[in-house]
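Ticket opened by: R.M.
Priority: normal
Category: complex prediction / small molecule

The reporter submitted a protein together with Isopentenyl phosphate and asked that the result be attached to this ticket for the collaborator who will pick it up next week. Submitted input follows.
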Amino acid sequence: MIVLKLGGSVITHKDRAETLDGESLEQAADSIAQTLGNEKDALKGGLVLVHGGGSFGHHNASKHGVSTTAGTNDAGAVLEIHGAMKTLNQFVLTRLLERGVQAVPVHPFSTACRDGDGALELPTSQVESMLAEGFVPVLHGDVIAQTGRGATVVSGDELVVELAQALEADRIGLCSTVPGVLDEEDAVIDRISNYEAVESVLGASETTDVTGGMAGKVNGLLELEVAASIFGLDGLASFLEGKNPGTTIE
Ligand SMILES: Nc1ncnc2c1ncn2[C@@H]1O[C@H](COP(=O)(O)OP(=O)(O)OP(=O)(O)O)[C@@H](O)[C@H]1O
Ligand SMILES: C=C(C)CCOP(=O)(O)O
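Result attached by the on-call engineer:
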């Protein structure tokens, strides 16, 4: 079973509020549909998709001062952020369904929450049932209720880690706008096994980001027992075929 994230920097123009990158989303949907069609073994046990917020989630969250740690008790703000994420999610679902992928939505706002310490609680039994019925669940970064803070942002990266652990994923991939984690010379780092070794090269995202960017990604993936790959859109087909493009976090 594969957990795959389509980064918001891939499927949106992250520097332009609520602007879809339709061409990149179509390329990603093509790669997913072709793999599901041709190499069912590669996806034995199913595929769970997560997408990021890009310029839909991050711009709206930033506008309301909401992040993974800063919350809001304003339902209007929650609805704007969650609504933008549902809009982006519908674009993703539509592109997949057009290609025969049995994609269905799972909105974290209605299923997940954080406790008073910020720990994520994400039920996965509904995702398991969807997989068993042949669906492709599509989750996404969102806002979720947090004890004592109203609602805070949950990153798609956090969802990937939680899903991979709960569902015992065989493979984990994060498709981003970069070909992998880059070193000082902008060369792709082949493998990362500890955070300190690369901390100095992990910068912020180039555009509005409220969830930690590449540093947060690498930090979260290092918690996993199964290796994860970070790669660019051109590496997506290769990853789905079973290869390890980009950077391996292990
Ligand atoms: N060492 C690094 N290697 C590669 N990218 C880096 C590095 N340091 C910082 N970055 C930035 O991280 C960005 C990718 O992280 P980001 O969280 O924006 O991706 P994403 O997951 O696609 O987006 P979203 O969070 O919207 O889903 C790159 O666009 C780059 O600007
Ligand atoms: C900003 C929001 C609402 C989603 C963040 O998810 P991410 O882009 O995967 O970090």
